[in-house]
Task: structure prediction
Amino acid sequence: MIKGESMLLDGLNPQQKEAVKYFDSPLLLIAGAGSGKTKVLTSKIAYLIKERGTRANRILAITFTKKAANEMAERVRKALSVSPPWISTFHAFGVRLLREDISVLDKNFDRKFVIYDADDSLKIIKGIMKRLNMKPKDAGIAKDIISKAKQEHRADMVDYIRSLPFPASSYSVVADEYRKDLEKSNALDYDDLLLFTTEVLFKDALIRQKWQQRFDYILIDEFQDTNDVQYQIIQLLAGNKKGLFAVGDPFQSIYSWRGSKPSNMLRFLEDFGAIEMKLEKNYRSTKKILNLANKILCGAGDMWGDKILKLHTDNELDGEIENKENENDIEETNYIADKIRSLLNVHGYYYSDIAILIRMSFLSRGIESALMKNNIPYQVVRGLAFYEHAEIRDLVSYLRFIANHKDKAAFERIINIPSRYIGSKALSIIRDHHKTDWIQALKEAKLSPRQRLNSDIFINIVEKYSDMIEGAPFMVLMELIKEIGYFDYLKSEYKDDHDDRIENISELANVFKNLETEGKTFSEFMEDNLLSSEQDRIGSDRSVKIMTLHAAKGLEFPVVFIPALEEGIFPSAKSLDNLSSLEEERRLFYVGCTRAKERLYLSSAESRMKFGSISPMLESRYLDEIKEEIQAGVP
DNA sequence: CTTAGGAAACTTTTT
DNA sequence: GTTTCCTAAG
Result:
């Protein structure tokens, strides 16, 4: 017993050990950057299983990204040869709960619901607004309002929007139509995955009890970035458990723009009577970098009182921080490329040690071209980039529609690809006939002879493959491409780059082929893709990684570049007139700097290409604050 | 119902 | 510099 315990807790400091072993009451661990919070979380799970005899399936662990969940599960599995089945993100947990119990809601959803991504939602909203004679350009605004409402309020989303001050209130009709469309499509958007989870747990006491009794321990990572609905899920699952553990760092809260509430940490202390522990020792960065990070926090407002961490470290004062001011963006990207060359040649780093963290994704373009010119291998870590290619979305939408004839977003995307002479007029006739699904609507709609003929061919194809799509998506894809003449369509539509697009499609075909060999279904594939995070797409290959600061959350690199430190970019233009957004920008800068273990390269340019013309830029305010911590770069 | 051409808008950050 | 939106002609 003692032997096993000492092994499990090996390499932990006294504070970390205390946090790992404590289970007498709910516990809030405030853990600074690089203080080993993931280690504590993983050790806690291992400790529960190994030392306290807890069955692995009695533990629910919630992480911020799928990647973090996978890594945590893998570490536990390596240490104990047991895989806890309930390590996931909030969204993935919601899907699992809803696949089991969504029928409790008085709605027309069933457990085979599909998930709509941001693009699907936006298209649906756009269509609704066109029909209502509203500006489709404002669809993004409407989507944000709907999303916020879902995050903050529960079932009364539409009423809530109606009660908002004027411009926002006008979207209540859109919200209501959108809600109905999703229900008719048996589709949930990202917010619904969380909202409906709370609704299920609220609605039915027996089901709530079932889920409460399923877990003895609930552990939540990155608690500073939970939103209201997520907090509610925890409350509903917790019952009066003592085995609650939340870990977070208020200074790494960078998602309040999408509804997260760092104040949930304070609420957690009150609502659950949690005790508080801190981890303030940093193991990641050199002292030089940590001093700089602490300096950034000096400029922060102190609404957090004694929750503020004072990070310290035993690491050496070595490492390098440099700030390079450049004349323009070209010079800046060349500086980065040159620096990377010398890091490899002079200092012996690998490409994979290096990350370039950017505030806005458009900045990657210039960086990419400089790296390309210098033959530096790189990877841009992006969202669902591959699945955003038009041709991939087309074909995936076809498969989605073949699998689910209710899927409105998929139907409207593909019904006129390739052209069946069904444009907005015909589509609105079809919409009028919609009762149960879109095949039915298409059959009943009165169309011109030409449209009717094409529609019947379409219906025929869709119905033919409906029973095969789940098990044999590869076969269906190949047949489908032939039957609809998709390659010919591509050739006429995209005159210069259809070869690249066909290449992409062959990549998609490979994915489905592998899927078939693994015995996974098409629905499982869709779910996996829609719930994965940007971080899941980081390859382990030897390349420099370019990603946004947000995507770098929770990661670390020996060498970090943060370019474009200019007013209007970092901090971003949209945050300049708002104190709380400015605070968040500062935290984002803090998060960026604390990703670096050994070397940190900051840079800015006096002018930059924006919207195709050159604009003068002002140095970021942050550079001024931290001048003393930096040795100036070569001018 | 399409296509072409020109104007206008556009860039935070994402599960 | 690029994507999206709008309009007028086929």
In short: DSSP finds 29 helices and 16 strands in chain A. The first strand of chain A starts at residue 27 and ends at 31.
